[in-house]
Amino acid sequence: MPDEVTTTLQRVAAGLPGGGESRPGQVEMAEAVAAAVVGRRNLVVQAGTGTGKSLAYLVPAALSGERIVVATATKALQDQLADKDLPLVAAATDNGLQFAVLKGRSNYVCRQRVSEIGGPGAQLALTPGSADPPDADDSLTPTADVGSADPATIADQVRNLVRWADDTTTGDRAELPFEPHFRAWAMVSTTARECPGAFRCPSGRDCFAEDARARAAEADVIVVNTHLYGAHLASGGAVLPEHQVVVFDEAHEVEDVMTDSLGLEVGPGRFRALAVAARPVLGDDDGASRAVEGVADLADVFHRVLRPWSGRRVPHGDLSDGTSTVEPGDGDGDGDGDGGDGAGPGRPAGARGGPGGSAGSGGSAGSGGSADSGGSEDDEPLGLDLGLAPLPKVPKVTPRPVRARPTAVGSDPDLATLLALATGRVGRLVDHLRRSERDAGDGEASADRSRRDRVLLAAGHLAADLARLALLGSEEVAWVEDGARAPALRVSPIDVGPILAEQLWGSVTGILTSATVPIGLAERLGMPTGTTDTLDVGSPFDYRAHSLLYVAKSLPDRRSPAAEPALHDELELLITAAGGRTLALFTSWRAMRAAVEALSDRLPFPLLSQSDLPKPALVEAFRSDESACLFATLGFWQGVDVPGSTLSLVTIDRIPFPRPDDPVLEARRELAGPGAFGTVDLPRAGTLLAQGAGRLIRSSGDRGVVAVLDSRLATARYRGALLERVPPMKRTLDREEVVAFLTSIAAGTAG
Ligand code: SF4
């Protein structure tokens, strides 16, 4: 196959604009991918900017005869694969290659929901639609304004969506001519956790999501979002058709995406949406109404109890029965490293209720609890100091055996109370839904049955997630995330490696590629060492001749507040020499805003900042004005592709170490022990630094400077591990050399 791969690659390249260019790294990668697929070996390939890595895996994929899933982290790459690269490859291979894009179910309009709200004479009731959060890969289709929208606007949008559902051939939200408010879209869509499946659904035969799955099942290459692949694994393999190979492009994102996908999230919105969806299904019966309102109330209670924990880790014991699995005094740990504030959750401010609030103290975490299991609906003990409704009895929780040293820093009975309360109330709602199903019998209208099926499924998933929260293992980390709309309780595995080793690598060959493969990625993803190869094909660009990496060694230590004025002076000097044309990257909004404020009157160039516009519009504004400068934070360290003279200078305000208080990383550090800085923090900082520096040279004609304005990159003992991650530019500490080079680029005289 190697010869066939090479010649096919040449044919495909010839079809590209200005094609025919030989790229040895691309050929080397394509041959390695072909060998890996045939030999059933995993492969991790670092392929620098300009390699053309997507064709280097698509061509061997197309020729392999295997079904291959390509998972990408960004919509931009997904679009490029589906709209440009795969059609070219299909034309060049001439073997009837079929490919398809598959998205999560909530990305497609649901015919059943549309028929329920849009049927003849139907009244458009403005209730939140889905009883469940969007599917995991909804990040592909950015949610419209998450703020408030007036009911009339949403009603208008829903009517437009109902009309559009009649015309569209795909039902894919990405093809909508307008961006709907999330509430409007929720009313016409369904998540995977609610959909009863085509067989039980009255609209199953005309379902857009099912059609997309059927097309994927026929395809040789299926393009998905990495989040959807994570959902596939989390579901035990129920989302994607059987396949032999998975390619993870943008592989530096895989660990974080899997950490996300293999976890769970429970926030107030799930209770609110479930109650709204259940109300019309259960009708006016007294007991059922109380069950529904009990779940509805949980939304506010969750919000109130979780808020003081925002951004903080939750000790496992809190989530089970109010009894921590951690011995007293086993809290802290290292306390070293810079910036570590030793911040554990401690006791949240709003939870100082005294003894009355303890789930463990009142004997209320007993057994039994659901309406069907004998517990009365009114037997919840009253008087908790949270102002919560009473605590139902819950099954005794047995914590999983502790595998690693636990990291809890205390216990909070209010969280345990909250979880027990939610478990009881959701369980009671499930009971009422089941009872209503039994009472309805066989003569029930199919639309009513379908509606109840969806609510039951959403309630069942919520109950399962609550049960999982009560049985957290020490290999998981729980925390409260301060979401855009409300705080949410989140759980993730600390280490995804063992899960992927067990669920993925034994049956599927993995090809992982990125311009910046993080150090130790294969190990952290659990790829077996005996059957995993690595390769670095470099980049076709001449970095040494065309670019400088400048470290501002003379600047004060970046961690000192006194460093900021010197940083602003340095930026002014460099940007002036470059004639604008600068992407200034910052590690925090605060630092970015301070620089914008300090420099907007001192620089004679248009200064764009991340506060001004959404990312695509901002990048376009930057691209279209050669003298413009763009000041931005972490969202712009990757995915900004501006070739040509518009971008001659990339500045980086400090080494991008991860936040010391990131809950998942904090747990990983504790697991890693004394070597955590080298195994957790340095690899992430190195990858992000490389991503930021990689914004500079985007085509063979580009020239420019990456300026790191953090003297630690010239002085710290760990600097070598970071510098080796940056593209192989000529390095300098000499400011005069940099200014001269930038001036020559601006004048068009640089070599
Ligand atoms: S099977 Fe029915 S409920 Fe599920 S997405 Fe399709 S139309 Fe909607």
Description of the molecule:
The chain is an alpha/beta fold. It folds into 4 domains: 2-16 and 24-98 and 219-258 and 496-536, P-loop containing nucleotide triphosphate hydrolases (Rossmann fold, 3-Layer(aba) Sandwich); 105-212, no CATH class; 296-493, no CATH class; 543-747, Rossmann fold (3-Layer(aba) Sandwich), CATH 3.40.50.300. The chain is 42% helix and 11% strand. A 7-stranded parallel sheet has the order 3-4-2-5-9-1-10, with helices on both faces. Strands 13-14-12-15-16-11-17 form a 7-stranded parallel sheet, sandwiched between helices. Strands 6-8-7 form a 3-stranded antiparallel sheet, sandwiched between helices. It is globular. The two termini are 41 Å apart. Residues 137-147 and 320-410 have low confidence and may be disordered. It binds iron/sulfur cluster. Iron/sulfur cluster binds at residues 105, 110-112, 190, 195, 198, 201, 203-204, 207, 209-210. Residues 105, 110-112, 190, 195, 198, 201, 203-204, 207, 209-210 line the site of iron/sulfur cluster (SF4).
